Amino acid sequence: MRIVHVADSFPPDVGGIERQVEALALAQRKDGHDVSVITAVNKDGAQDQDQDLDVHRGLRTRWLTIAFPSLNHSMVAEVLDRGDVDVVHAHFTVASPIAIYVARAASKRGIPVAVTVHSVWWKVASAHRFVSAVFFGPSLMRVVFSGVSTMIAGHIKRVYPRCGAVSVVPNLVDTQWWSPTTPSLHRAGDPDFRVVLVGRLKKRKHIDEFIEIMSRVKAKVPAGTAVSVSIVGAGPRHDNLVQQIDDLGLSEWIDLLGHRTPEQIRDLLHDADLFVAPSRQEAFGIAALEARSAGVPVVGYNFTGLVDFVDSGVEGLLVDDADDMVDSLAKLLVDAARVEQLKKSTRARRPSVTFEDAMRATYDFYERAKRELGGR
């Protein structure tokens, strides 16, 4: 197939969506497909990770992270009109002007358009409708929709109740690469409980709320309970979080490790007892699936994308709110036997979402787009 991906964000911008679009394009090219990428992100002459990847970048004119589609009209037309395109795969977040613009341009040309939504939409439904209307008018695009999780698929149906069926196309995670190959040398509570969190130090990841939660947990467990919390990631909130940790007296419990390579994160997870996913806006949870694949029980919220791959009570715990997370962590951090049982059952089960599952779902989604929308 000739596949064109379009995403407002793409490397060298850093984030889960950027990683996913690049990984999917590279995997499809490895499968033998002709793959191109259209993005609003220019990079001032830097080289792509893989120079063979056909990336078409917008002009440098952006307002915050939003590009102006009309300035990239010629580039978009050149990509879409260069030979027959079998499918355009548009990746939507909250505000995706370039992705929406290319989806509409492809739809007008009779090219099947498959849209995947990567972000929580329901609470920002008005913002998404506003962006679409301001940039492109009130008419609906002729596309098929998917979400990266069942939760996001539900959001799409609520925002666009007449959009038809909504597929689920999970993010790509090489679960086999993350899986442990040897038994863990560490046991919970011997000599400490090891908790890991991985994420960009940005406000929407709610790491400040997690630190507050750990302060409340510390007040509920017996004095002297040994806990080691490793927070992996870099970002603009670093200094604020350091100050918060000091102010709450959690310096002996929590370390900000900064950036780590995937290999270093995998080694850290293989000796961890629990992984915490504190974001209440987790559309999928890439880091959480990586941890679950590494055999680490995941603690997160039951209204996020984690429900697709964390069996609560078996592969971790999914909680209702911050109070529930405090109570759950406080109980686990004094119950080594319970934590070890969760680790054992997590390691024993194959993740319910794998790389192969995600690739199969993606290709099935394309076939649905071609079947329902037709070709040129």
Automatic annotation (TrEMBL):
Keyword Glycosyltransferase included in the entry's annotation: yes
Question: Which part of the chain is the Glycosyltransferase subfamily 4-like N-terminal domain?
Answer: 14-176
Gene3D superfamilies xrefs: Glycogen Phosphorylase B
Where does the Glycosyl transferase family domain lie?
191-348
Q: Which residues form a coiled coil?
A: none
Origin species: Flexivirga alba
Which PANTHER family does this chain map to?
Answer: SULFOQUINOVOSYL TRANSFERASE SQD2
Q: Which GO terms describe its molecular function?
A: glycosyltransferase activity
Q: Which UniProt keywords apply?
A: Glycosyltransferase, Transferase
**What name does UniProt use for this protein?**
D-inositol 3-phosphate glycosyltransferase
